[in-house]
Design goal:
Helices cover 72% and strands 1% of the residues. By secondary structure, the protein is mainly α. It folds into two domains: 279 residues, Orthogonal Bundle (ABC transporter involved in vitamin B12 uptake, BtuC), CATH 1.10.3470.10; 280 residues, Orthogonal Bundle (ABC transporter involved in vitamin B12 uptake, BtuC), CATH 1.10.3470. It is found in: Cell membrane.
Length: 668
């Protein structure tokens, strides 16, 4: 009886939603009269087919309405399936990396293999997106399999895969400068329609997905009893999970191929259904799709009306608005008791040895860094191919090569030191200024300053970046305080804040401002425009900031022992934590201004130092600074020579090196 009530409620909600959508269309300014006017509906149903207003209605507004309802319903249904199979209330296409994988596959195929004719009579877009989404899902499941698909590990793996796909997609967009704006708008999620092709393609796919879901609903509901209970009742759990995951991936890929990445609808709709009292799987399956359709429809309506209310301008991407709505919901779910579900703590693997005499190893690292600097300055590509420049040939090139190499080296050293400080402060081996969103917060402050003030001094840029970094770090620690700064909570909170900043940045960059492409290149860590003055300023900031943590060496040895041990040893925790946080914010701010917000150097470098046995605070700080500088020097050199005459930003290339390292850490 209850299940039938929920099914009827879902049907009534869907019909009410369709009625509201048609009423909204009838009230559009392109139509004559009002929604309650009979003449309006008569014109709507049998008006002049040559009327421009009618063409706009039939070929744009109505298809867009149907596309928003279909995409929202499909994403909500996929979210329910992901959450039921993985037993994780935070699972949805975006947090699992499925949407990012599908987007990357479509973008890479269209740009790198145009001969396949994706979407233009050649290979179907849906098939390419399905392959990318399935590959991302398989990678996430493989990374989390050893942890028995624990919710925390699954989400962390999904976010890491999503960040990797996002970095690769950003690289592809950089090499398509002429079509950057259109490509960026599609990647941000756009429902603009020019006919009925997309709704006609989505409708049968969603109908088939709904039918298959109904067939799987009863055995999926038995998963609430646990894997052992379901097996005892004769349910083939592995086959069932694989089938449900494949169905959810297919629904997600269909939406990405039609409208780009539209995040968090698959998270918000099931959460709203649960808050409304839909506890059973049948109830969530009945309520979540209409709610998802309503959410996306409202977000798309806002994307169309906000620019008009603001006096005109470029239409906003719908996907960025859903991210702005969904990321705060993710933060709220993380702050609820048990909101993350059962999970496993993220722990570090202890190094196999500790160096008794670290100075010789640090000296060897310094020699390796010197060799990398020599390589970056003297070896490059030219018109005649690879070339090793002598001193005479090198002199005119030093003006171009030395400043960017020096600035990248300073930024890498500062990020490495910031990573050590964060990991020792939080006791979290997966912490880093990039992973916790601190770098993105700094970049967000700079972008707001750029778009709000036409001209400003360098001091204002530094202040804006520092304020953004410090505010983000404070928010992460404040939100994680309720759960004792649990490592997995801090990571997920940092990623959620990064998503909020990313959505706002996407809104700013999609505004049509001519500086958008320049800002986007800076966000990817470009060192193209580094001058000798900028390089000197980077080192002027790096030298004192790298020396200050040495004064906190005793604190850094005690903080990883825990709060109780630190207090028993006489450490004033509020003072120590506050000063260390200020150092982290300063180091991250200075580095982000040079190489952008995402490089993973702050995560990689401390682990590299640990793997060589540098466990004490001072040796680890020195080793991480050397490792970070080495990574950024090599990344800047490779970005300059690999695709000559084209170039890749050093921060982006470091991200492509660091993201697989993050996946490897999760696997371990």
């Amino acid at each position: 009886m209850a299940d039938n009530r929920y099914r009827c409620g879902g049907l009534v909600g869907l019909l009410a939603l369709l009625a509201a959508g048609l009423t909204a269309v009838a009230a559009h300014p392109y139509l004559p009269g009002s929604p309650g006017d009979v003449e309006t509906w008569r014109w709507l149903l049998a008006g002049d087919s040559g009327d421009v207003r009618r063409l706009i209605l039939t070929d744009s507004l109505l298809p867009r309405l149907c596309a928003s309802l279909l995409c929202g319903g499909a994403l909500a249904l996929a979210g329910v399936l992901f959450q039921q199979v993985l037993r994780n209330p935070l699972a949805e296409p975006s947090t699992l990396g499925v949407a990012g994988g599908a987007q990357l596959a479509l973008m890479a195929t269209a740009m790198l293999a145009p001969g396949l004719g994706v979407g233009s009579g050649g290979m179907p877009r849906g098939l390419v997106a399905l392959a990318g989404g399935a590959g991302a899902a398989a990678l996430v499941v493989g990374l989390a399999w050893r942890a028995a698909l624990a919710p925390a590990v699954v989400i962390l793996a999904g976010l890491a895969v999503g960040l990797t796909c996002s970095a690769l997609a950003s690289g592809l967009m950089l090499f398509n400068g002429a079509g950057f704006q259109a490509l960026f708008l599609w990647a941000s999620g756009s429902l603009s329609q020019n006919g009925w092709a997309i709704p006609q393609a989505l409708a049968p796919q969603l109908a088939a997905g709904a039918a298959l879901t109904l067939l799987l609903a009863r055995p999926l509901a038995l998963l609430d009893l646990g894997a052992e209970g379901a097996v005892g009742l004769g349910v083939p759990v592995r086959v069932l999970r694989l089938a449900a995951l494949a169905l959810a991936v297919a629904l997600s890929a269909a939406v990405v191929s039609a409208a780009g990445v539209i995040g968090f609808v698959g998270l918000a709709a099931p959460a709203m259904a649960r808050l409304a009292g839909a506890r059973s799987l049948d109830a969530r399956l009945a309520w979540a799709p209409p709610l998802g359709a309503a959410l996306l429809w409202l977000a798309d309506a806002a994307a169309q009306t906000v620019p008009q209310l603001a006096g005109g301008g470029r239409e906003l991407p719908t996907g960025t608005l859903t991210a702005l709505l969904g990321a705060p919901l993710l933060l709220w779910l993380l702050t609820r008791p048990g909101g993350q579900g059962r999970g496993l703590p993220v722990t570090a693997e202890a190094p196999s040895h500790r160096l008794a005499r670290p100075i010789p190893w640090l000296a060897a690292g310094l020699l390796v860094l010197a060799l990398a600097v020599w390589l970056a300055l003297t070896v490059g590509q030219g018109v005649g191919g690879w070339r090793l420049s002598g001193w005479t040939e090198l002199q005119p090139l030093l003006y171009w090569r030395a400043p960017r190499m020096a600035a990248a080296m300073a930024a890498g050293a500062m990020l490495g030191a910031a990573g050590v400080l964060l990991q020792r402060l939080t006791g979290n081996p997966m912490a880093g200024p990039e992973v916790l969103g601190i770098s993105t917060g700094a970049a967000f402050g700079v972008i707001l300053l750029h778009l709000a003030v036409p001209a400003f001094p360098v001091e204002a840029q530094v202040a804006a970046a520092g304020a953004g970094a410090l505010a983000t770090l404070g928010a992460v620690l404040l939100l994680g305080r309720r759960h004792g700064h649990a490592p997995e909570r801090l990571l997920l909170t940092g990623v959620a804040l990064t998503t909020v900043f990313g959505a706002v940045v996407a809104l700013l960059l999609s505004s049509g401002d001519p500086r958008a492409f320049i800002l986007f290149r800076w966000l990817t860590g470009s060192t193209y425009l580094v001058t000798p003055a900028i390089a000197m300023a980077a080192w002027a900031a790096a030298l004192p900031l790298l020396a200050l943590p040495l004064l906190c060496a005793r604190w850094l040895e005690i903080l990883p022992l825990g709060e109780a041990a630190a207090r028993s040893l006489g450490l004033r925790l509020p003072l120590a934590r506050g000063l260390v946080l200020l150092l982290v914010a300063a180091l991250t701010t200075a580095a982000t201004l040079v190489v952008g917000p995402l490089s993973f150097v702050g995560l990689m470098a401390p682990h590299a130092a640990r793997l060589f046995g540098l466990q004490r605070a001072v040796p680890q700080l020195a080793g991480a600074a050397l490792a970070g500088a080495l990574v950024m020097v090599v990344a800047d050199w490779l970005g300059r020579v690999l695709l000559f005459p084209s170039q890749m930003p050093a921060g982006l290339l470091a991200t492509l090196l660091g993201a697989p390292y993050l996946l490897w850490l999760l696997r371990r």
